[in-house]
Amino acid sequence: MRILTPSKRVFLTLTMFTLAYNINAQDQNLIVNQDPKFDQLLSEKRKINTSINTNDTYKIQIFSGKSEEAKKTLSDFKREFNTIDGTIIFNTPNYKVMVGNFKTRIEAERNLAEIKKRYKSVFLIKPSK
């Protein structure tokens, strides 16, 4: 280990303090220019998100099986029932096609009766919280 002389130690210490004094990376001000409509859109989105509770809706499962068959089933369903949304959910080992987002059981059962005419193994699902 090399020992510095007192004069070199003082010089090194002063140099370090001088360099450290000039470092001010966190002193920058950031100005963001954004469209005022962005704030309005963001507040509207927050209102909508608080009003939507996806766990309180009924869904109808129309298929459970392999990925390609699930994609085909969903595509066929969307062609026939274009007013009802649908999605594919993976639940090991099957892909499930879930359709609808019904707020009441009565509404879901009405649609279930209509969908049952086309798809045989369908049933109503109330997602758990």
Automatic annotation (TrEMBL):
Keywords: Signal
Signal sequence, start to end: 1-25
Top-level taxon in the UniProt lineage: Bacteria
Record InterPro entries: SPOR-like_dom, SPOR-like_sf
Domain SPOR per the UniProt entry, residue ranges: 52-129
Name of the featured protein: SPOR domain-containing protein
Pfam families: SPOR
Molecular function in Gene Ontology: peptidoglycan binding
Organism whose genome encodes this protein: Flavobacterium bizetiae
